[in-house]
Amino acid sequence: MSDAQKSTGQWVQVAAGLKNASMRQLLGVVLAGDSLPEELSKTQQKDLARWEKIGLLRNDEHGWSLNHQLLDQTLASASAHKADRSGIQRFFTGARLHTLPAKPGDRHEVLVYIRDAVISGDEQLREEQLNERLRVFHPDVALLRRYLVDHSLLLRATDGSSYRLGSAA
């Protein structure tokens, strides 16, 4: 996975985290420099762990803080990424997919890029979580979901309740 794909994937997860009210509130507490409660709820613990896994927050001997290195790397990557309009990037304007390629090979590459940005390893996402992440790329999330499943890039649970990585590369 390229640095640009990794960066895009992180920011898709950041955007999804910002949509979550409890995660957003917890992030605000940390960014404001306020003290976290001594006894964190399970939800707060889970939210902090998610922010840390995404890389936006870090926990050290001084407590929780914003990961400025991630911001610097992302800005540098975005600057380098903006100049590159070859390959699959010609189908995107920033992070937004403006055209789904007609050629099957190009379409598959675009879908792999999107898949790698929205889900990782052993993650299993509910449909609404997947939709939040796909919406960063295109407003028609049902279309993207369908293509990802049709290309075996995502596997849908038999009851349709969740999605996980597929076997196709």
From TrEMBL:
Name of the molecule in the record: DUF2087 domain-containing protein
Residue ranges constituting the DUF2087 domain according to the UniProt record: 96-164
One Pfam family this sequence matches: DUF2087
